[in-house]
Amino acid sequence: MTAPPESFSSLTDARVTSRLGEMKRRVGELGEDLQDAIHGRVGSFVHSLLSDLESHSCRIAVIGQIKAGKSTLINALIRRPDLLPTDVNPSTAVITKLYFGSAAEQNNTALFQFFSDDEWERIMSGGRAGAMTMERHAALRPEQLEEPLEELRQRAETRLGAEYPKLLGKHHLFSSVTAGLLERYVSAGDYDDVPAADGDRRHYSDITKTAEVFLEGQPLGYPSIIIDTPGVNDPFLVRDEITQGNLGDADIYLVVLTAQQPLSKSDLALLRMLKGLQKDRIIAVVNRIDLVNVAGGAAERLAAHVRASLKREFPHTEIPVVLASAHWGNAALSPDIDERDAALASSFGDYAEDLARHGEPGFERPRADWTPERSAQMLYRASGIPAIVSAISRLIGHSVTAERLLPVASTLGAIAENTSIAMRYGIKTLQGGDGGDGWIRGRASRSLQELETLLSKVEATLATCEHEFTVLTAEEIGRLRRFMIYTADNFAEQQRERLLQYGSYAAFRGEFQEQTFQLRSQLAEDFYKYITEISKQFLTRQQEAEAALRVTVQEALPALDNVLHFGIQATSLPPPSIMPLSKVTGLDLDSYWLPRAHAAQVNPAEAEKFKQLVSASFAELIEELFQLAEASQKEHVSDALRRLRFLSYSAVYPIAQQLQQLVSARKTMSGRADGGQEWVAPFFWDQFLAECRQSLLRCEELSADSVTIRRQCIQMMSN
C-alpha cells in the first residue's frame, strides 16, 4: 500500500484540529497529575473521565447515492489513493470504518465481523422488507425478494463453499492491510465471479457485516473514524437498511453529491433524512467536477445552485458546499505520473485558470516547465480535498471543545479546587491542636462522625435529584411521543381524504410520496426542537441540584470556605439518533403501488385501509425513535448523577483522608520511653502540617492550570 505523501499534508489546513489534539493532550496530563493529588475514590472517577477522553474520536460518515464516488473521495481525503476498492459497481457493500489515532499496536490491522446465524437468517427471510411483507400483507410481494436473496445465498456458497454457514458469527483479524484484502471483504464484486484456486483468496463480502481498519497517522489532525457506507439507494434493501442503521451516531456527515446531477430527488430525500440533526454537522461535497464543464464561471454557478437548493431545505443555516474531484485528488497523490498527466490534460487547466481569475492564490494554467511536485500540489488543491478537511476541522474544533474538552477540563479544575478547599479546612482545624493522642482521637472521632452524616445527606440530596431527573425526562418524552403520534395520525387522515379526492392510486402516488418526505422532515424537526428543550430543562435541573448540594455541604460544615464547585458543563446534551425516521416502509416501495396502478376508483373502505396502513407504518418508526430517546436520556441522568456525586465527594473525602494520614503518621512516630511515658518523634506535628500544606499547594497549582486550559478552550470556541 502506498504511504501517504507527507508533502500534501501542508496543503490541508488542519490547524484547528491540530490545536485540538494538543489541548486534549494537556487536559489528559492535568488529569493524570491530579490523580496523584486527590483521594483514591475520586481519582477513580478522574480515571474514567480521562479514559473516555482518550478514546474519543470524531465519527465522520460519508454518505450518498450509489456511485457518487464516496470511496474514491475517502482515499483522497486520507491520502491513500489505493486503499478502498473503487472499481466494482457497486463498490462498497459493507460498512467500513477507518480508525485513525488508535493505539500504536493496532496500526495497520483489520477486523472483519461476519453476520451471526440469526442475522443471516433474518437477511435470508427478507430483513425488514420480509417483516413488512408479513405485517403489511399486500405492501410487498414475497416473490419480489426471493430471487435476489436466493442469488445472494448461492453466490455466498459459490465463493465460500458449501460450508460457508460455519463462518457465520465468526471474525477474521489481520495484522496487515492491503487493498486486495479490503476488496475481498468489503467490495460487492461481480455477481458471477468465482473463487480463485487458492482458497485463501475467497471473497467474503456477502457475509461480512462490518469492517474495522486501523491506520496510522491522523490526516484530519484529530483522532477520527471515517465511515464508508454503501449507497443509501442501494437496490438491495438489506444493505440499504444496514447503512442507515449505522448513521445515527456520527458527529459529522459528508453528503456526497455528483456534479452531473447535484441534488437529485434521491439526494434531497437523503438530506431530509438528516434534517433533524444538528445542522452545523453537515458538509455537502459536489464530487466529480472533472466530468462536467466547470470553466467560464460554470463552477460557481454549480455551487450557487446547490447552495440555493440547500437554503430552501435548511433556511436557517449555512451548510458548507465544496466542489471536489476525488479523481484529481487521487491522481495528485498517485506515484503514477501518466495518471497525473492525464488529469492535468483534462478540464483541470480551464478550471485552474478560472480559479485564478476569481482571485484564488496559487492557481494558473499548468505549464510544461513545472516540476512534478508543483503540478501535483496544485491538482490536489483544486480537487477540493484541502477545503473539505478545513470544513471538517472547523466543525470538529467547535463541537469537540464544547462537548468534550471544556467540560472535562472544567470538571478536573472543580475537583482540584474542591480538594484545595477541603485541605485548607483540614489544616485550619488541625492547627488548633497539640498533636497529643487524646486530641487526635477526639478530633478524628468527631470529624468522621460529621463527615458520615454529611455523606448521608449528600446521598439523600442525590436521590431526590435522581427522582426529579427521571420524572422530568419521562413526562417530557411521553408528551413528545403523544404529540408525534397525533401528528402522524392527522397526516394519515389527510392522506385518506386526498386519496378519495384523486380517486386512484396512480394519480395520488407522486403527491403522497412528496408529503411523506415532508412528514419525516417535520417529525425530525419537532423531535430535535423538543429534545433540545428537554435538554435545557435537564441542565437547569442540574444547576438546581448543584445549588442544593452546596447548601447541604455548607449546613454540615459551615466553616468550609467557598463551599463546593461543579465547573462548566456542555451547554446542551447530544440529541438521540433520529435514524428510525429514515427507515423504509411498505409505502415507500414500488411493490405497493404498481399492483394498484390500474385499479378502479378508490372507495371509502379502501381509503380507510390506506389510512390505517399509514398510521401503523409511522407509529412503528416513532416507537423505535423513542426507544432510542429513552435509552439516551437514561444514560444522561446516570452520567449527571455520577458527576454530581464525585464532585461532592471531592470536597469531603480530603478531610477524612487528612485525618487518616494523621492517625497513621502518629502511630509510626510515637512509642514508649523507658519510664513508660509516651514520647513523640521530634518535629512530628510541624512536619505533618508542612506535608499538608505541600499537598494543598500542588492542588492549587493544578486548579490554576485548569483555569488556563478552560480559558484557551473558550477562546478556541469563539474563533
How are the elements arranged and paired?
Blueprint: H1 15-35, H2 40-55, E1 58-64, H3 70-77, E2 95-100, E3 109-114, H4 117-124, H5 127-136, H6 143-160, E4 171-174, H7 179-186, E5 208-215, E6 224-228, H8 237-245, E7 252-258, H9 265-273, E8 282-287, H10 298-313, E9 321-323, H11 326-333, H12 337-357, H13 372-382, H14 385-430, H15 437-502, H16 505-556, H17 590-593, H18 604-649, H19 653-668, E10 670-672, E11 678-680, H20 684-718
Helix pairs in contact: 1-2, 1-14, 1-20, 2-14, 3-11, 11-12, 11-13, 12-13, 14-18, 14-19, 14-20, 15-16, 15-18, 15-19
What is the number of helical segments per DSSP (H or I, 4+ residues)? 20
Low-confidence stretches: 128-142, 194-199, 672-679
Rg calc: 31 Å
Percentage of β-strand residues: 5-15%
Approximate shape: globular
> How widely separated are the two ends?
38 Å
Structure summary:
60% of the residues lie in helices and 8% in strands.
Provide an overview of this structure.
- The protein has a domain at about 435-650.
- The strands form two sheets. The protein has a nine-stranded mixed beta sheet, sandwiched between helices.
- About 60% of the residues lie in helices and about 10% in strands.
- The radius of gyration is 31 Å and the shape is globular.
- It is α/β, with parallel strands linked by helices and about 725 residues long.
- It has helices at about 15-35, 40-55, 70-75, 115-125, 125-135, 145-160, 180-185, 235-245, 265-275, 300-315, 325-335, 335-355, 370-380, 385-430, 435-500, 505-555, 590-595, 605-650, 655-670, 685-719; strands spanning about 60-65, 95-100, 110-115, 170-175, 210-215, 225-230, 250-260, 280-285, 320-325, 670, 680.
